[in-house]
Predict the structure.
Amino acid sequence: MSGSVRLDRTVLWIACAVALLTPAIPVLGADAPGPIAQMYHSAWTARDGLRGVVSALAQTDDGFLWVGTTEGLYRFDDVTFEAYKPETGSFPATGIKTLEAAPDGLWIGYLSGGVSILKDGRLKNYSERDGLPISRVRSIVHTEDGKVWVAAVGGVARLDDGHWHKVRLDWNFTAKAARELVVDPGGTLWASVGTGVLYLPKGARSFENAGVQAHQIISLASAPDGSMVYTDLLKQASRRMFADCR
């Protein structure tokens, strides 16, 4: 495949799992352009080369769509899916949990633990030997200072000078681990930590408590108005945290 291929960035990509686990939740602040039946739909299956349960999507600056599944990493050029193999290095695991496209490369987090970065066909792997928390990698983000943050079952860590440093009470991170990390447009790093939310203002070195009390937070996202939206599993509804909580 040619790296010059570019996909239409106005396309909305949707990954569907085997079944929906919770009832539909209204999207706050979303515009309603019209019935979804008026939109053009395309779907791809194993017949198109895509295998496994889709768990992550990312689009890199070269226009390729990358899909992480339980069967590995796939690259899509708007025509076909290719089970991707790096030119240098090899994947440490098969099942992929999360992807993040960043200026320094495509970051990959695995279901069994470990992180890789793919850049220009070269793959670099990180493991516990590099200070990475153990077990499933749930989320990978970049803050505005270029630092990479990872949330895994075994904790949260920050990459600095090629080594992962676990984020603990020295950063006032009072939880054992985080389910999801999100960086908002203002540069604040947010972490959902089970029943609550912690946040790290841009340039700060101490997390603060957002004051959220939930049964279990299952999703966290930045809204256009600058607020953060989270979903509580028990209440099956979305709630907002406004930026002025900082």
